[in-house]
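anyone else get weird line breaks when pasting these?? whatever heres mine. first is seq + tokens for prot A
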Amino acid sequence: MLQEFKKFAMKGNVLDLAIGVIIGAAFGKIVTSLVNDLIMPILGIFIGGVDFTKLSYSPPFGESVILYGQFIQTVFDFLIVAFSIFLFVQFMNKRIRKKEEESTPESPEKDAKEELLIEIRDLLQKQEQNSLDITKKQNHES
């Protein structure tokens, strides 16, 4: 059983997924800092200095507090993370496409032998076509 687990854990896809999750978590922290430390204060200036994380509602009954400002902040974080990942994937796809276009040759260059063989083939086809036309013409006249 241990060998099967080791075989499963060492597959390329599992390792790629693990690396992606770790990098994604670190990227999420960067974007969260971007949102909390840069974007939200600027947005707060434009909307009158409101700090979304402190918005809450205390219902008249009970001692619970509804932190809807924290929810707004979390939704905003998600949207920025999703948009950032979208931009990153678009950037990487463009780079990959550009590399593929650069690596695929436009048209393979033909050497002198190939050119000569192509000319001979074309001349033979033309000669054969002329022979067929002459034969048809002779048969038609007869």
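and prot B, same format (seq, then tokens)
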Amino acid sequence: MSYDRPPGLPIVDAKTPAVLVPARPVTRDEVAGLCAEVRALLEATPGAGVVLVEIVGPGPPGLGTVDLLARLQLTARRTGGGRIRLRDPTPALRALLDLVGLRFEMEGQVEQREPALGVQEEVEPGEPAV
């Protein structure tokens, strides 16, 4: 079941980032429309500066998904220095982004220099503290 989007821009709270959920697979014709949507969301929420992107759909992500994310990030940066943040990316998408050398903010990602939950570091006796 599908429905038409209401006309105009969505009502977005300036403190809560807007969310964009493109369904996969995205065709080349749809990329320009999604970039325009990111631009509109960032212009509608000038204080936020972030658009959450959630990639959903069947199957593993491919290079089309990487191309889409790179274009969305470029559009966001060109729109007042905004950025996109990935929400709950799959391990396959994380691995693919690492493989091609693209870095994105990710929700739920462990902060730098903090060990992931459940990970314990082993220290040998006599080693200096790091």
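btw re prot B: The CA atoms of residues 16 and 27 lie 29 Å apart. The mean pLDDT is 78.
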